Amino acid sequence: MLEPEGRAKQAKLIRDAFREILKGVCTSLPGHVLTFDPVKQLAQVQPGVSRVDINGAEFTIRPIIEVPVYFPGGDYCVEYQIDSGCEGDILFSQRCIDGWVQSGGVAANPIGRFHNMQDAMFLPGFRSQPNVLPDFQNNGVRLRNKAGTQFVWLKNDNTISMENGSGSFKLLADGSFLINGLQITADGNVITAAGTNLNTHRHGGVTPGSGTSGVPVP
Length: 218
What we know:
The protein has 218 residues and is of the alpha+beta class. Helices cover 12% and strands 29% of the residues.
């Protein structure tokens, strides 16, 4: 029977061995896109955390090629631009995905890989602190560009807004529209940006007969 000191050493050896085994088990890592093929929707991704070998030396993990990229939905889906530098989470499948990537459905498992780095999938959107979204609004749902100059926004006050830096559109909670300053009321009346109400305005400079009236009078 081992003495307490011997048992402690044995436990440490087991822990160290188990830790070394776990280093080869891939689950997920943050990373970023190096290149993206929009036809195949496959990316080359760079893991964002370095590794340490058995001797304690730190090294950068090599890029992973032909990684499927996540676009949510089925027959109706969300499509978004993937650029070099796009950050996200690299997920690693429990089994080899080579057959599934090629054929879909229930695919054959051509290689007996388990939690292997070659079986990666990329989920865009997780962001490091240097790349957080500017002007973030914790309000409803907003589809936007990174700068926040283009967006479609469903707010929690039941309004909907759309802007592109040159013009704006807003559907208010009462059903009225605001379009670049022009207002369409919920009952269909139109009030121009200059304040002219098209239901009640009058024209000046009217000439009886076939003449043309002047501009509207507010």
